[in-house]
């Protein structure tokens, strides 16, 4: 839905206010990604100053993941029901305060608590921000361009976080915690002025409180179990019982959602093949990349002896390639469609990961590492925007927050699950001794798993290429809408669309 304030000018030119709105939303997504990548390099300094054990340090990272991944479904639906602008701005303010707290505390538990609160706030800003874009920019070339810029900012934030953390940690680890605060405050001030007011969803019939409680509990327990499994053992009674409890909670959640008049997730959206491919693709995409980055960081710093800054610069070509493609991706999606780009992107990812298997203890960066980084950067530039566009196309405005939360949940859960699997595989193959060659040999099976996950993403997204001879626009309509009203909305959407959306 567009308003007079946000309606683009003729010939597709955006008004200054529309650009300002997009930049505020991009700043929030940039901060989310920046915060994830910055903290990893600072962990040794944090542990030394606060006298924290390795297991405690893990929760500085895991606390953020737990809050973020566990509450995304609730955050997305809350944005739909209570107003996207209100939810986004309140959560952004909480993010800023938690950043200040994290940079000032002198206690491990308080630092972990601040990280959990930041993850919780990001669980509301991410789906709210994405749904503001999809309800402000009409479906088609304008939205594709906006989403390309938005998702590129996330990739850029992640890449810059690696570099900035190396520089800031040299002075103090506290700067890595404090840096997001002033950026968040500036974005909040600008957002109060620029982001158009959004109406609440007046069509819902009450609040799905049981679904919200059970859904949030199941996601929190799933993320917690996966994060802890490498430490306590995948076959331990605690892990197995936790997974059983997750299965029970998810079963109950599905039954509740099927009976709810206003569900947290309308399961009917998953009847779309494109929607299912987008969700599964997001899991495979982020899960493989997080596992790859984890292994490569260990390889470069522990085996090659590179500094944190040197390691960050090694990853930089991939991030730079994503940033440079930002303004072009919208037009590329318009021309080729998301299914083809997803297949091409995952294919590049598979090749990039496979090429990295050639590394040894004395690699030539330009010949061995750089080709993988460039291929993976190109893959991210194609896959990340395409996933967001495919997941949100054809979805009614009042469900955009829900779908955005579902997509971000797939990203975070995929990252947690596959990182834990990669860690377990490396640990299981690390009994060959402590020599550098033995350690490198233990990393290779993990890289094989990463490559296999990307290959699975390629096979899943490739199913979207079948039966695409005739362009077809698909609109997902809430099951409760009368048929005449649904048909009228479909015709209106088709008149506005300037890009082919394939089923």
TrEMBL record:
Domain Major facilitator superfamily (MFS) profile intervals: 21-469
Keyword line: Antibiotic resistance, Cell membrane, Membrane, Transmembrane, Transmembrane helix, Transport
Pfam families to which the protein is assigned, alphabetical: MFS_1 (PF07690)
Region described as Disordered: spans on this chain: 480-503
Species: Streptomyces tauricus
PROSITE patterns: MFS (PS50850), SUGAR_TRANSPORT_1 (PS00216)
Biased amino acid composition, Basic and acidic residues: 492-503
Membrane topology: Multi-pass membrane protein
Cellular compartments annotated: Cell membrane
Ranges in coiled-coil conformation: none
InterPro entries on file: MFS (IPR011701), MFS_dom (IPR020846), MFS_trans_sf (IPR036259), Sugar_transporter_CS (IPR005829)
Transmembrane segments: 21-44, 56-75, 87-105, 117-137, 149-169, 175-195, 207-227, 239-258, 279-300, 306-326, 338-357, 363-384, 405-426, 446-465
Coarse class of the protein's main subcellular location: membrane
Protein name in the entry: MFS transporter
């Amino acid at each position: 839905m567009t308003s007079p304030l946000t309606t683009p000018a003729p010939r597709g030119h955006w008004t200054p206010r529309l650009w300002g709105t997009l930049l505020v939303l991009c700043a929030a997504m940039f901060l989310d990604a920046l915060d994830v990548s910055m903290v990893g390099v600072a962990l040794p300094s944090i542990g030394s100053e606060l006298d924290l054990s390795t297991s405690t340090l893990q929760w500085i990272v895991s606390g953020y993941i737990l809050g973020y991944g566990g509450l995304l479904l609730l955050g997305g639906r809350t944005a739909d029901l209570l107003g996207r602008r209100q939810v986004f701005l309140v959560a952004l303010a909480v993010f800023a305060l938690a950043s200040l707290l994290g940079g000032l505390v002198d206690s491990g538990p308080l630092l972990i608590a601040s990280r959990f609160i930041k993850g919780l706030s990001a669980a509301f800003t991410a789906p709210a921000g994405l749904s503001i874009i999809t309800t402000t920019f009409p479906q088609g070339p304008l939205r594709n361009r906006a989403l390309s810029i938005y998702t590129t900012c996330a990739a850029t934030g992640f890449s810059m976080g690696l570099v900035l953390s190396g520089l800031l940690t040299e002075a103090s680890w506290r700067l890595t915690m404090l840096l997001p605060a002033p950026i968040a405050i500036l974005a909040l001030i600008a957002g109060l002025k620029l982001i158009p007011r959004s109406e609440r969803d007046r069509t819902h019939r009450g609040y799905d409180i049981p679904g919200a409680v059970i859904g949030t509990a199941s996601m929190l327990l799933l993320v917690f179990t996966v994060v802890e499994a490498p430490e306590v053992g995948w076959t331990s009674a605690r892990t197995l019982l936790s997974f059983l409890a997750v299965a029970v909670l998810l079963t109950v959640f599905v039954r509740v959602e099927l009976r709810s008049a206003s569900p947290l997730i309308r399961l009917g959206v998953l009847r779309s093949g494109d929607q299912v491919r987008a969700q599964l693709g997001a899991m495979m995409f982020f899960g493989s990349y997080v596992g790859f980055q984890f292994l490569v960081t260990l390889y470069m710093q522990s085996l090659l002896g590179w500094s944190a800054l040197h390691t960050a610069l090694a990853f930089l070509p991939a991030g730079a390639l994503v940033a440079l493609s930002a303004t072009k991706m919208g037009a590329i999606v318009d021309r080729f469609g998301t299914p083809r780009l997803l297949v091409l992107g995952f294919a590049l990812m598979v090749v990039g990961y496979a090429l990295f298997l050639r590394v040894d203890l004395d690699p030539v960066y330009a010949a061995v590492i750089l080709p993988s980084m460039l291929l993976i950067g190109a893959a991210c530039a194609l896959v990340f925007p395409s996933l967001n566009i495919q997941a949100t196309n054809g979805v009614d405005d009042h469900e955009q927050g829900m779908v955005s939360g579902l997509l971000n949940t797939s990203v975070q859960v995929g990252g947690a699950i596959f990182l834990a699997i990669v860690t377990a595989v490396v640990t299981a193959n690390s009994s060959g001794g402590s020599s550098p060659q033995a350690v490198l040999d233990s990393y290779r099976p993990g890289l094989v798993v990463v490559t296999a996950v990307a290959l699975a993403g390629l096979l899943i997204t490739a199913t979207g290429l079948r039966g695409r001879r005739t362009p077809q626009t698909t609109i997902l309509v809430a099951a409760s809408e009368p048929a005449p009203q649904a048909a009228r909305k479909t015709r209106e959407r088709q008149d506005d669309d300037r890009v082919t959306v394939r089923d």
